[in-house]
Design a protein that fits this description.
- The protein is of the alpha+beta class.
- It has five domains: 3-130, DNAb Helicase, Chain A; 171-192 and 530-552 and 602-747, P-loop containing nucleotide triphosphate hydrolases (Rossmann fold), CATH 3.40.50; 198-297 and 491-526, Hedgehog/Intein (Hint) domain (Endonuclease - Pi-scei, Chain A, domain 1); 313-480, Homing endonucleases (Endonuclease I-creI); 564-599.
- Strands 22-21-23-24-1-25-26-27-28 form a nine-stranded mixed beta sheet, with helices on both faces. Strands 2, 5, 6, 9 and 18 form a five-stranded antiparallel beta sheet that branches. The chain has a four-stranded antiparallel beta sheet with strand order 10-11-13-12.
- A hairpin with a 3-residue loop joins strand 19 (516-519) and strand 20 (523-526).
- It starts with a helix and ends in an 8-residue tail after the last strand.
Length: 755
């Protein structure tokens, strides 16, 4: 045996003697038979016995039980500098053992094949396959197995009337399953975010400022968010043909959604925003107290900025307002010295302002040279356009918030004004150009309405603009000094909701902690989530959960938890806009969250081996009692095709539950064909994506169904069914629970949820 192999064995033993907890990191990697020296085999067995018994394992304690091991243990502990590399050395030990085993098995296989011994060949092949298995104590006599069963029966009797497993948070589910059970693999399937639909022709704002049709959204698309924080699409779920409703808001903007789509809505008497469906909003608007008093939040405007702009935004805005692009050189009018100085400061060397009237100026350059500004206007498609033909170039609507703000300032410094009652106005004879300016203001988080004003010569389209930070909407001092900040936090009031048509719809899931994204006309709307309630219920009962999330980073999940437990909207957690009531609720929510222990792993493309390794560390070193995974089909197995990958995942998760003796609960994707099925649309176990191996390995399979998604007049509106499709330890069937749209939680009908 090589010196390296000997050193690896000694380093593993010495490292564990220095830090006994390192044993749990390598317990599934090496066994005593993997060591070459009889003395080292004996020492490993002694260490294992003491560590698993919860007793210290060092040279003194081991030497007291077996004097032959004292010197060996002392030498190894003294000569090992650190326990940090124990897992790496353990892999070397295991790989050396496997190579020795392969050689031995190959020799036996060769001899058996030559002798025609079929049993010997089959045995050798089985031994080869077993080389990849984890190291566990898995051999029991019949009497030992019966003792384990009797111990379980005795424990159940001693704890009669108590839930034997980890609480699910739902009384109805606890009654059937007895809670989550150790060593069980439970799969939870359902059409994710079912019913939270928008029509495929609705627009969704991307992080780079482009708009994309809902029907063209793809997994991983980076979206704009309400506060500028990163957000991406983590699920796309076609919903089929649905009835569509149009929301009209106080400044005239509109957005469309299905009857079950979610909205984060505020009302002056509520302490924090609530999440309501379109149907619930319609019902509330029928009550006088809610009419013109329900509102949604405004976007911060933090998106875009990925393109280089050919012309300074303020200068373009000013020229769009007061510039003339149809003469030989660009011209504009102003009586403000402040404006003249700023324009002159933005011109490159060789360009100058030339007076050509009382308040008129042209921007000119050197003779026989191209006019720099004219070239830029040609590039933007504006040169030669009359005032009624001007439009804001698309690149500027996709610019950063700071650049879009400068563009608006330029427009306001030219054709904008401020009324004595603090109303900011802008006017244009072109309805198309006025619409561009309106969209620009809305992109900055402003409320902007448009009204037609009749004049002697032509109609004018007058915009009224209000928004947080509106003192920045003009840079010209005489205008900016007239603007005052709004006295109250502004929001966008819902004026009406009306049915408009039926259309193919799609639901998306996003990673932003508020579950909000931006749709038509910069309206902020909502999506949904589920597994967080299950995690919270386990933590509330004192069973430390470990949560693998491929959907959202740890900080976003933490924000969701605080929002859920405090009932303070996640948007407020990001922008800091708390009132006194929010502070009290927030303090209580954070206190509750801190009292509940939880481990989170947020890698988006986790491999099966990685998940297994982290789970083992959590269980042995951090006391985790249950593993949650969101979701099973996002785990990867490098080198396998999709069918093989799902089969490996199914077996791996079941083996994980058995080896660690903890429940493993995983969300599982359901095929979208369920939605197009005629008749009963309740999903079943066969609807799981790549279902054969998942169905075979799972101990329980639960499906989620809400009848109101497919039948708007359903008598079960506000309820959900949990369909128990498979249960190795008890009955199948279904249970009805309450579906709480405001928090997207499933709630027991028997009592309030216990988290």
């Amino acid at each position: 045996m090589s010196v390296t192999a000997t050193f690896a064995e000694e380093a593993v033993l010495g490292g564990i003697l220095l830090d006994n907890m390192r044993f749990h990191d390598i317990a599934s990697v090496v066994a005593e038979d993997h060591f070459t020296s009889p003395l080292r085999k004996k020492l490993f067995a002694a260490i294992k016995s003491r560590v698993l018994a919860g007793e210290p394992a060092d040279a003194v304690t081991i030497g007291e039980a077996d004097g032959d091991l004292f010197t060996e243990a002392l030498d190894l502990a003294s000569n090992t500098p650190s326990a940090a590399q124990v897992p790496a050395y353990a892999n070397i030990v295991r790989n050396n053992w496997r190579r020795r085993e392969v050689v031995q098995i190959a020799m036996e296989l060769s001899a058996g094949a030559r002798a025609g011994e079929d049993d010997a060949v089959d045995s050798a092949i089985g031994r080869l396959l077993s080389l990849n298995s984890s190291v566990t104590d898995c051999e029991y006599t019949g009497k030992q197995a019966m003792k384990l069963a009797w111990d379980a029966i005795s424990f159940a009797h001693a704890n009669s009337g108590q839930l034997p497993g980890i609480p699910t948070g739902l009384v109805e589910l606890n009654d059937i399953l007895g809670g989550w059970q150790n060593s069980d693999l439970t799969l939870i399937g359902g059409r994710p975010a079912m019913g939270k639909e928008q029509p495929n022709t609705a627009l969704v704002l991307l992080a780079d400022g482009h708009w994309v049709r809902m029907g063209d959204i793809r997994m991983g698309d980076a979206l704009a968010s309400i506060d500028g924080a990163p957000s991406e699409v983590t699920g796309v779920f076609p919903q089929g043909v649905k009835d569509v409703y149009q929301f009209t808001f106080s400044d005239g903007r509109t957005a469309r959604a299905g009857i079950d789509h979610l909205w984060e809505v505020n009302y002056r008497e509520w302490t924090s925003p609530r999440v309501l469906t379109t149907a619930e909003i319609i019902n509330k608007l029928e009550c006088r107290r809610y009419r013109n008093r329900l509102s949604v939040r405004l976007i911060s405007g933090e998106f875009g900025g990925s393109e280089t702009l050919p012309l300074d935004p303020w200068l373009l805005g000013f020229l769009l307002g007061d510039g003339n692009f149809t003469t030989t050189t660009p011209r504009f009018s102003t009586a403000d010295t402040e404006v003249l100085e700023r324009v002159a400061g933005l011109l490159p060397e060789g360009m100058r302002l030339v007076p050509c009237g009382k308040y008129d100026y042209r921007i000119s350059g050197t003779k026989r040279r191209l006019n720099w500004l004219k070239d830029k206007l040609v590039e933007l498609g504006l040169w030669g356009k009359y005032s009624h033909e001007k439009r804001i170039p698309a690149a500027y609507m996709r610019a950063s918030r700071a650049e879009r703000l400068e563009l608006l300032r330029g427009l306001m410094d030219s054709d904008g004004w401020v009324e004595s009652f603090n109303s900011i106005r802008f006017s244009s004879s072109s309805i198309d150009f006025a619409g561009d300016v309106q969209a620009l203001a809305r992109s900055l988080g402003a409320i902007c309405s448009m009204a037609k004003k009749r004049t002697t010569h032509m109609d004018a389209h007058v915009l009224t603009i209000r928004g947080a930070g509106q003192t920045e909407f003009a840079s010209l001092k005489r205008k900016a000094d007239r603007i005052r900040e709004p006295k109250h936090t502004l929001s966008l009031t819902i004026s009406s909701v009306e049915a408009v048509e039926s259309e193919e719809c799609t639901c998306i899931r996003v990673s932003h902690p508020t579950s909000l994204y931006v749709t038509d006309n910069y309206v902020v709307t909502h999506n949904t989530a589920f597994i967080g309630g299950l995690v919270e219920a386990a933590a509330a009962a004192g069973f430390k959960p470990g949560f693998f999330s491929a959907e959202q980073p740890a900080v976003q999940m933490a924000l969701r938890r605080v929002s859920l437990l405090s009932r303070v909207a996640a948007t407020k957690l990001r922008n800091g806009s708390f009132d006194d009531e929010d502070w009290a609720s927030l303090a209580a929510g954070v206190k509750t969250a801190n009292e509940r222990d939880l481990m989170i792993y947020d890698r988006s493309a986790i491999t099966l081996d990685e998940l297994v390794g982290v789970s083992r560390k959590w269980v042995h070193s951090h006391g985790v009692k249950i593993i949650f995974i969101d979701y099973a089909q996002r785990i990867t197995v490098p080198g396998a095709d999709r069918i093989q990958e799902v089969a490996s995942i199914a077996r791996g998760l079941k083996n994980l539950a058995r080896d660690l003796e903890v429940p493993v609960v995983a969300l599982a994707q359901v095929v979208k064909g369920v939605d197009s099925r005629t008749g009963d649309k309740r999903p079943n176990a066969g609807d799981l994506a790549n279902s054969d191996e998942l169905t075979r390995e799972a101990d329980q399979i639960l499906m989620l169904y809400r009848d109101e998604v497919y039948n708007p007049d359903s008598p079960d509106r506000g309820l959900a069914e949990i369909l128990i499709e498979k249960n190795r330890h008890g009955p199948t069937g279904f249970k009805k629970v309450r579906f709480e749209a405001e928090t997207m939680a499933f709630q027991s009908l028997a009592r309030e949820r216990d988290f």
